[in-house]
Structure formats: C-alpha cells, structure tokens
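Figure S7 source data.
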Amino acid sequence: MTAQRLDGKAISKQIQAETKTKVAEFVSQSGRAPVLAAVLVGDDPASQVYVRNKERACKRVGIESRLIRMSGESSTEDLLAKVNELNNAPEVSGILVQLPLPDQCDSRTILDAINPNKDVDAFHPHNVGLISQGRPRFLPCTPHGIVQMLRRYDIETTGKHVCVIGRSDIVGKPMAMMLGQRDSGLGPEMANATVTLCHSRTANLAEITKQADILIAAIGRPNFVTPDMIKPGATVVDVGINRTDDGLVGDVDFDAAMEVASYVTPVPGGVGPLTVAMLLENTLMAALQGQ
Ligand code: NAD
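Tokens for the predicted nicotinamide-adenine-dinucleotide complex:
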C-alpha cells in the first residue's frame, strides 16, 4: 500500500489566498493594514529563517510586518520593556517573540507579559485557558494548521483514536486539548476524538501508537516513528523539524510510513507551512478584534 502525501504547502497557499482577501477587506474598511511585530533576540540561524519566512508570508497577504532585532545579550527586563512598548502601540495588532530565547531570558515571564489580545501565538495563560474551555480567542498556530489540513483532506477526527506524541505547550498539549473537546471552534467533526497524549515517560509507546487512527508526532527526534508503531491505514502527521547531515527530516520515517499508513505529511512541506498560514490568520483576527 502506498499512502497519500498530505500537501501542507498547497493547503497553506489556499489558506493564505483566503487570508489575503480578508485582509484586503479589512484594509478597505479600516484604512490601515494589520501589523505583526516579531521580536528576534540574538542570531540563532534557525530563528532567523523562521522570522524571515513569517515576514515574507505577511507581505504576500498584505499584513505589515515589523522586525525588532535585539541583542543576544538582552535581559528579561530589556525584553519586558520592548513587549510593553508593543502592547501600548495601538497600530500593532499582533506580537510574537521568536523562541527559543537566550538562557538568561525568562521565557515564561516574557510571554506572560504579552497583551492576550495581541498574543497571536496563543501562549498566554489567558488564551490557553480559553482554549481549554472550548471558547478560543486565538487557536495555537501549529495545532490549528494541523486541524485545517485534516479538514481540507476530509479526514474527520470525531470518534477516532488520536495519539499525540509530545506534550509541549506549543504543540502536543494544545493539540490534545483541541481534539478531545466537543468543538474547538472548527466544527464538531474536527474535534470529539479519543485522545492519548504520550511523552518521554510513556511505557509501551508502540503498543499505544499502533492503536491510533491518527498519529501526531511532535518529539524532535529524527525518524523516531517507525512502521511498527503505525496502525495500517492510519493518518500520520509529522510535526518534527530536525536538522541532520542529510538535511531537514521529521520525526517520522516518511518512506516507511508511506507503506503502512493511508495519509502521511512530509517534512519539509507538511505542517511547517501551515503554522505560518495560521499565524497570519491570527494576526488578522487580532486586528479585527482590536477595531
Ligand atoms: P519539545 O521539544 O518541547 O518537547 C518534545 C516532547 O517530546 C516532550 O514532550 C517529550 O516528552 C517528548 N519526547 C521526547 N522523547 C520522547 C520519547 N523517547 N518518547 C516519547 N516522547 C518523547 O517539543 P516541541 O516544541 O513540540 O517540538 C517538537 C518538534 O516539533 C521539534 O522537532 C520542533 O522543531 C518541531 N516543531 C515544528 C513546528 C512546525 O511548525 N512544523 C512547530 C513547533 C515545533
């Protein structure tokens, strides 16, 4: 059996085209463009690439992006002062602080200082709380992108067993939370799953993952998910981005997974482009809510 490759790049383009239309409407009604302010601290090469991609994507859909570069020596207080300035700038719709931050910066304190109405990454405890109650202000970009992709390929989650590997605040935890609810804002057919959240201390991991109709890997270990961990006919979503000597690879052994599963996302070209698309959507939403 050869699975179908889920084309995140194509779906991301589709979503961005829709966002572009909505941004144009916003501009014609308000006379201004939504503004995304991105704070980049230090010179981590991967972070530079991510921020550049986000800037380009903003431009494509008519969102104004502002890049604030800060020294790698910046302190928590320096960053708090910058976040505060952006919180109080009326023209700034959304704020993102590119992670990871240097060791001397207290990421949690800095992310908590972002005005929840401008928190387009949906990391603020207020926004996480709203997501957990099924009444989100913003949906977190990566899990939202995954649900959008599944929906656009008609892969419903209701009644399915979804196994998420990884319990990060950015991907695993919100993903599990969204899919287990009655409705996380994207329709009941894209929620209502029976969710198992696995992590580094999970015993008999393969026994659990093999039961999943939809397996979502967000671990950060190259080719960690092998075919014996996949239920025949399952949908496999690979969130991992691992830099290796062979280039970028995911958490899933893609070629092997294609022989067992029904659908598999590639890396690159899978979940990554969707994350950026949903960031744009959240920025537009922040601008609309801030009117
Ligand atoms: P993280 O690095 O914060 O945590 C990794 C998680 O994997 C932990 O919860 C841990 O319990 C789990 N884990 C580690 N070893 C394990 C094992 N042996 N068995 C089971 N679980 C194990 O996670 P993150 O920030 O969600 O990142 C995960 C991966 O996703 C990384 O490669 C990251 O680059 C990538 N990522 C991609 C996107 C995207 O847009 N595609 C977005 C965010 C993160």
